[in-house]
């Protein structure tokens, strides 16, 4: 059952380059400054979390999300500051923990880590890792990170990093642990792994109907029971775009989400997104696009269907203008979130 | 050949989806991962109740048709003789996340299914189920005649085997476009306009029949010519 009072709503940006009104694009530096402003308004609209991605490519502005989050921290009061995601496979868990513990200190305990494998290859050669170790790197680093999370002296050894012998990592956080999610796609093995380590789970639903994840969420709970680990409500992140006019929303979303997906597709050799595919995703699938009412109905359905504790909308995909991005955040905070809660309250009452 | 028992090697995203489709179609289904049955038990019980979790040998021994649904870079971990005299549908593709650097997995002068066939030389390999994303496979399987039905490209060197697979694919919920040449599998490898696409019969046929006009085909031809 969904606990409406505890539901959380987030926005996430991958740090896409922002467009000017005339269609030209802003610099990466300008795009970064835009995110700080968006964090500020998201906080004012009462959105619970902002997530910033990590990429090492020309089409994205942010490679060091903690620094951006640190700046957002200084102009906000309540919003949680998350990464979406930290590419743990090509990072050092010790440094990740230190950076987030620092962010947590300067933001009064609002830092949140989302660990993932990333969907691009650049960070591997950049930081001296072998792509062939993709899976092993992630596994090993998750294990070390879990030890660090206890904030007690760590003894550990592995294949990809120097061993630790009874060593402390600083600073310690005030709560004694960093809130940490693990971002996963659709593989059963990764769900079981998350449950086995005791991480919170955020599911990336970036294609197809949310319905097909229902059994996977059962699997998470079954696995947590089997390994005697805590069970948390599942979070979901999906792409979306909200505008006052439904047709405008679809037009902007098609152009920009398509550009984003096609770019990822290029690195994997999959075919460009067709209009049919986009329309299917928008109608029944994992793109939340349209007026606040349409988006609210669809988000409420997903939350109810999957029994979620949190829903994050990925915003700003492709090259959107600052006005489009800011209006979307405003509509999400002021219209969509209250409406989703209202719909869910009615649904619960009807049950 | 009548097919009653389906064996799936690989209990990941695709393997699970295909196991579900096969159960829906009324087959007896066995499925394995790389390790012990215990490792996939909970997954199979929860996601595809009714399928039997097993290890590779047991799956192969008790199946009339086998679907290979593991990362392409891992097929050499399987004993080359395991599929002896078996009909195997090769659903694998090169995918960097699991396979690493392409050149280390695939030789440039062949196609991926030909390499799989060369390794499992006593098996009959037919390529299929590889070019549609797993959630499309799950959501877009429809009964014959349904207007929303999508099509899959099936190809292999052995006529009879290809026809058997085509019939099987039909029962799994998809129309088929059939070629009798394993090397034509290149048409659905990553980079092709068919890879990741979910098309109906007419649209798939249109691209297959005019494949030599695609940018991908020209690129493949050019790289072969340069060697
Ligand atoms: N994802 C798609 O949309 C899609 C669509 C069509 C085709 N394909 C292709 O289908 C294949 C599987 O993809 P996927 O996405 O399902 O990958 P996946 O989720 O990573 O699953 C791969 C599965 O194969 C198992 N495996 C590995 N080595 C094995 C071995 N020697 N014997 C038995 N099982 C073994 C793994 O088990 P362990 O976890 O125990 O290692 C895992 O269960 C790939 O070649 C892919 O390119 C994918």
Plain-language structure description:
The complex is a heterodimer of chains A (351) and B (227). Chain A is an alpha/beta fold and 351 residues long. Chain A has eleven helices and twelve strands. Chain A is globular and about 60 Å long. The mean pLDDT of chain A is 95. Chain B has 227 residues and is α/β, with parallel strands linked by helices. Chain B contains ten helices and eight strands. Chain B has an eight-stranded mixed beta sheet with strand order 3-2-1-4-5-6-7-8, sandwiched between helices. The radius of gyration of chain B is 17 Å and the shape is globular. Chains A and B meet through helix 6, helix 7 and helix 8 of A and helix 2, helix 4 and helix 7 of B. The complex binds NADP nicotinamide-adenine-dinucleotide phosphate. NADP nicotinamide-adenine-dinucleotide phosphate binds next to helix 1 of chain B. Chain A: This is Luciferase-like domain-containing protein.
Please sum up the structure shown:
The complex is a heterodimer of chains A (351) and B (227). With 351 residues, chain A is an alpha/beta fold. Chain A is built from eleven helices and twelve strands.
């Amino acid at each position: 059952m969904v606990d409406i009072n505890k539901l959380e709503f987030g926005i996430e940006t991958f740090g896409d380059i922002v467009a000017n009104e005339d269609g030209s694009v802003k610099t990466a530096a300008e795009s970064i400054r835009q995110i700080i402003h968006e964090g500020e308004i998201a906080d004012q609209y009462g959105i619970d979390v902002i997530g910033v991605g990590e990429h090492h490519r020309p089409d994205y502005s942010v490679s060091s999300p903690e620094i951006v989050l640190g700046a957002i921290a200084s102009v906000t009061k309540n919003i949680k500051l998350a990464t979406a995601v930290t590419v743990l496979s090509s990072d050092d868990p010790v440094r990740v923990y230190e950076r987030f513990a620092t962010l947590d200190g300067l933001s009064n305990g609002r830092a949140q880590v989302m660990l993932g494998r990333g969907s691009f290859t650049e960070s591997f050669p950049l930081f001296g890792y072998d792509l062939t170790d993709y899976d092993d790197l992630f596994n090993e680093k998750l294990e070390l990170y879990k030890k660090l999370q206890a904030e007690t002296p760590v003894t550990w050894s592995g294949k990809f990093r120097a061993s630790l012998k009874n060593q402390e990592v600083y600073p310690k956080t005030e709560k004694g642990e960093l809130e940490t999610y693990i971002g996963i796609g659709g593989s059963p093995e990764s769900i079981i792994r998350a449950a086995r380590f005791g991480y919170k789970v955020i599911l990336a639903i970036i294609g197809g109907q949310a319905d097909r994840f229902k059994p996977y969420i059962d699997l998470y709970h079954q696995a947590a029971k089997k390994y005697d680990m805590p069970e948390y409500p599942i979070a979901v992140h999906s792409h979306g775009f909200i505008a006052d006019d439904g047709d405008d929303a679809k037009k902007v979303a098609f152009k920009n989400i398509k550009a984003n997906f096609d770019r990822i597709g290029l690195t994997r050799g999959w075919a460009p997104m067709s209009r049919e595919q986009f329309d299917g995703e928008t109608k029944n699938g994992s793109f939340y696009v349209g007026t606040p009412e349409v988006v609210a109905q669809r988000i409420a359905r997903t939350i109810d269907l999957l029994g979620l504790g949190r829903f994050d909308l990925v915003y700003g995909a492709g090259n959107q203008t600052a006005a489009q991005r800011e209006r979307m955040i405003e509509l999400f905070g002021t219209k969509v979130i209250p409406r989703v809660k209202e719909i869910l309250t009615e649904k619960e009452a009807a049950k | 050949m009548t097919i009653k028992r389906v064996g799936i090697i690989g209990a990941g995203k695709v393997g699970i989806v295909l196991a579900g489709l096969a159960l829906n179609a009324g087959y007896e289904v066995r499925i394995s991962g790389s390790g012990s049955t215990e490792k996939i038990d909970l997954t199979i019980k929860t996601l595809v109740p009714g399928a039997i979790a097993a290890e590779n040998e047991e799956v192969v021994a008790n199946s009339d048709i086998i679907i290979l649904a593991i990362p392409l870079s891992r097929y050499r971990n399987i004993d080359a003789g395991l599929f002896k005299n078996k009909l195997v549908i090769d659903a694998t593709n090169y995918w960097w996340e699991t396979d690493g650097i392409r050149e280390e997995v695939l030789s440039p002068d062949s196609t991926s299914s030909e390499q799989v066939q060369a390794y499992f030389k006593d098996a009959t390999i037919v390529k299929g189920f590889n070019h549609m994303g797993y959630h499309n496979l799950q959501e877009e399987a429809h009964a014959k005649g349904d207007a929303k039905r999508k099509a899959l490209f099936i190809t292999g060197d052995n006529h009879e085997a290809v026809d058997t697979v085509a019939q099987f694919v039909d029962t799994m919920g998809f129309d088929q476009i059939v070629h009798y040449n394993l090397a034509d599998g290149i048409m659905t490898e990553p980079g092709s306009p068919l890879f990741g696409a979910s098309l109906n019969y007419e649209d798939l046929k249109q691209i297959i029949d005019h494949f030599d006009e695609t940018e991908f085909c020209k690129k493949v031809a050019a790289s072969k010519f340069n060697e």
